[in-house]
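User: Just a sanity check before I run the rest of the batch. Below are the structure tokens for the first item. I only need the designed sequence back.
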């Protein structure tokens, strides 16, 4: 009888321990989804500003039509990738695809701002300055949102690395999340935007 009670107590302790780890993983996964939603807000803000910038630049950069069209193509790819990542923020391939499209968009924007530096009339345009300032603000907020998302991903992934995390993760269907990594060009765009908005 005592052996049965001891076994029941041990089983109950193990069950609470396993459920506690599962709850921590669920909470970590919720934090990732919340952090992604904050990043998504900044992506969408960025996506709304870019077509207006391109429209203003068209009047001054007629000979650079290819560069402006490349921005719109990259923007459309990023919007599509972001929509997919919003549906599946914990699916690694969706995050990797979003990061790749965001890199392409950042590179094409960087080219436009590099060209814009050679057009004093465009730089003097008040609407261009206002939109550049707003885009710079969105880029800065996006950097912080991306860092918060990555911090949540690292914490979540680390909780599955040490025993019994991997076993419990497998039992309950938890999978490692992917970091939102971007190239160095991201910081360069922020610097270009800061100059353009002055």
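Assistant: Here's the designed sequence for the first item:
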């Amino acid at each position: 009888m005592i052996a049965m009670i001891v076994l029941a107590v041990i089983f109950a302790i193990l069950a609470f321990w396993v459920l506690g780890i599962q709850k921590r993983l669920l909470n970590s996964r919720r934090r990732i989804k919340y952090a992604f939603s904050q990043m998504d807000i900044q992506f969408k803000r960025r996506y709304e500003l870019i077509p207006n910038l391109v429209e203003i630049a068209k009047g001054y950069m007629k000979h650079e039509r290819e560069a402006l069209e490349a921005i719109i193509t990259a923007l459309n790819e990023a919007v599509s990738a972001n929509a997919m990542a919003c549906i599946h923020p914990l699916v690694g391939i969706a995050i990797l695809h979003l990061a790749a499209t965001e890199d392409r968009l950042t590179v094409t924007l960087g080219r436009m701002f590099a060209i814009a530096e050679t057009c004093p009339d465009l730089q003097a345009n008040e609407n261009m300055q206002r939109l550049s300032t707003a885009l710079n603000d969105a880029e800065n907020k996006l950097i912080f949102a991306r860092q918060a998302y990555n911090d949540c991903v690292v914490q979540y992934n680390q909780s599955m690395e040490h025993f019994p995390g991997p076993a419990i993760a497998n039992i309950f269907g938890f999978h490692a999340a992917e970091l939102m990594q971007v190239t160095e060009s991201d910081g360069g765009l922020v610097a270009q935007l800061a100059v353009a908005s002055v």
